[in-house]
Each structure stands twice: as structure tokens, then as C-alpha cells.
Request: fold
Amino acid sequence: MIKQFSYSKPQKVKSRKELDILFKNGKSFLIFPLKVFYFFADISGAEKVRCGVGVSKKHYAKAVDRNRIKRLLREGFRLNKAPLQETIQQKQLSFFILYIDKTMPENYAAVEDKMKQVVIKLNKRYTDEIAS
RNA sequence: CUACAAACCCGAGCUAUCGCUUUGCAUAUUGCAAUGAGGAAAGUCCGGACAGCAUAGAGCAAUUUACUGGUUAAUCGCCAGGUGCAGAUUUAUCUGCAACAGAAAGUGCCACAGAAAAUAACUACUCAAAACUUGUUUUGAGAAAAGGUGAAAACGUAGUGUAAGAGACUACGGCAAAUUGCAGUAAUGUAGUUUGUGGGUAAACCUUAAAUGCUGUAAUGCCACGUAUAGAUGCUUUUGAGGGCUGCUCGCUCAAAGCUGAAAAGCAAGUAUCAGGGUAGGCAGCAAGAUUUAGUUAGUAAUAACUAAGCUAGAUAAAUGAUAGUUUAGAAACAGAAUCCGGCUUAUGAGGUUUGUAGUUUU
Reply:
């Protein structure tokens, strides 16, 4: 029984090599203020859904602000990833969320709302990918 | 009592649910337990530890520092003292500030105004000569005493002196340098003697004195995986390379002296640059040390010594969080470790302590 809301190390997209591939070959879409890069791989690892988050250093010079945004994004993914895990079985989804707005998010609720939209859209992209 | 300013202290707690890092244990991939940012973690401005490379030397340049002593692993830090300037009043003390060696080695610069900003003659002054309109003009020389300008004008006052004047000379005083005595570890102070009287600017060049290897934990070492030195260009084979450290010079150290050929050259070797290929995983470094708190002793102090007690962040796209409630005081300010320490600088809400200033009330 997998814990429903966990977000541990294997579920993160981490290495620089993976990220290079993701930005080079992956597709992307925008649900403001979130830009999502995603990539479906044929190899089947232990985790079917993997996610990373990032914030531009240009927009936020202070490390405290970047940490705050990244924590909110991770929290959003952690609590709303369930639909993706149910749907995606045949391939491995890696995606990376970039926060591109220049103003800080007001609170968690705003981020969560956007995150739900991201999850729905990713689910749709997956079904298209399988169909083609 | 209120307001403002400065310095210092402090840098929220509790409950529930869902999570994260690291560690330990186990019934082992899930449980349980423990653990988890700062006073500045920031700026990267100084100084070290640690590591790698280098490690005969000399000279010139370059860079840094600049009152004295102490302190420290070390410093451009800190403490104490001195000097100068400013402010305050209690008038001899306190507080603050100081790129605090040299302008008497040399070169440069000094806005505006002013005749002139440094080998001072514009006006006015004195003398001589010439001219004539006979008290003026012109020319030459002397002269920094008077004038106005300016941030600053060629030591001040009085006298002597002189054609008129001038530190040209004299007296008193100011300032500077050298030197002697005394006090002090010293900077320096003080009293005397001698010499001088030369405007400012060294955060202009510069001079003097002292000091100075480079690169930084993405250092560095080990293991694993993987491949390719195949190639191009230049140079050399009596020269090349290395390194003196940031640069140059002298000297120094190391390597090689090959083969074919009549020669040109070729092969080979060495070396530099370019181009290209592979890996970008793990472990160590990496958390207990110039350590923190308290006390005692030494010292004016910075600090040191001793005694006792205490001290589990350690990631690598990078943990320390989210939501709800609650308490203070308002959904707490500035802000997030990345090799580690000591300082400096800057940011910082509420509350507290101390000091100063202003006002109000009472006595």
C-alpha cells in the first residue's frame, strides 16, 4: 500500500542530465503562472510519475522567496497527484514546473487551484499520447 | 509620564492532520523513535585553518599597508595610549571624528573673482633719463609697505633703516626642523639651544619605510563506468621545456642529441594550441573544536590561564514545510546553511534595559 500523499526522493526529477533531456526533447504548455515541461518515457521505472520544481533566480534574488515558492509547488503536487498515478500505467511521466510570475503567490489556495488544472491537462495529454 | 534618537538583549509558544532531510532500531521497502537554519546563515570587505601546485638565488617593476604599544592562530579587527580638529559644559574634563609618514627631492594642478594662485608690479609709491603744453606724459630701473578679489595673497606687532621699501636688520611673539636634558617601553610631552620663516593639494603623479607565491572544498584523494589521442596547425631535434610564484631580466633545473638522404626534405620523437571522444555515478573531504556557558585568577582593557558543566543540521536541484485552530501583540521584522572558524559592514517587527534630547504634570 503506497502512501497517498508522500513525495520522497524517487519521485523527484533531479539530475542535471535528465533535466537537459527534458528541456531539449520534452513538450510544454502554460497555465499562468506555471510553465510545465513534460516528457513520456518508454522505460518503466518504479515510479510512474516524477516531478521537479523550479523558480527563476532573475525574478527572485532572495533565497527565502525561492524556497517559499518551491515549497508551495511541491505541496501542490503532493496533494493533487493522485489522478495522474491512477491513469498513467504504461509509460513513465517526467515533468518540471517552472514558476514564471514576477509577484509572489498570495497563499497556498491560489497555487493549489492552478496545480489542479495542470494535473487535468497532463492527464489529457497522456491519453492523447497513448491513442496516437 | 509621553515622544524621538542611539547602543545592547531577544529573534514566539502550543494542539491536530498531511509531508520532507539525516540517523538508529525492527517484525525491512514499510513501521516506530530521535533529529533538523541565523544573529546576521547575507555582502564577500579583511584575516586564518585545510588542500593542491611550486619551493637555489639576485635585481627591477607591480601591489598592499602607513601615529605608538599591546592582544591574537592571524588581520586593514579589537583594547589602551598619543597627536590634531570639532562640540559640550562642570574650564580641565568628557564626548565624537581622522586614508594620522613626507608639500624643505622633483613634476603637475589650484573653479569663480582678482594685476597676480607661485621665478607675484594692475593701481598707487621712489629714483633716473627724455619730451614738451612746466607738471604732466613716455621709457628704464627699484620696490611686496598700501589697495580691492578670494577658501587661500607671500610670518604678526613695534622699531631701525632707506630715494622709496623689504626678516634687510633688531626686540618680543608665532610656526617648522635639528639637537640636548628630564618624564615615558614608545608615539609624544616639557624646558633649553641652534637654524630657518619655503601658500594649498599626496583620496594627483611621486618619495620614504615595511610587507607580499598562486589557486580555492566545483580544492583534493580514492573507487566504479567509459573511451581514442585517431586528427589539424605551429615550433624544435643544439636546442627545447620548466619554473621564481603578478610581470620582466640575469642566473638555475630537467629532457633529448634518433633514422633515411648528397641536399632539399621525409619518418620518428618531444612540445604548444585547436578540434574531437568519453564520463559527469559513489565514498572520503564533511561536522568535537583557535568550541559554548558559568566561575576563579592575572591584566586599566582587548585577552589569557585553570576548573566545572554542555554541545547529534549536513543536503547535492539541494530537507527543516503546508493547512486549520489557539495564545501573546497584528495570520510577527530582516532573512535560508553548502568546507570550517575569527572579525568588519549592511538589513531588522513587537517587547525589554540603559543613555541622551524635547515636552507635560506634580512637589
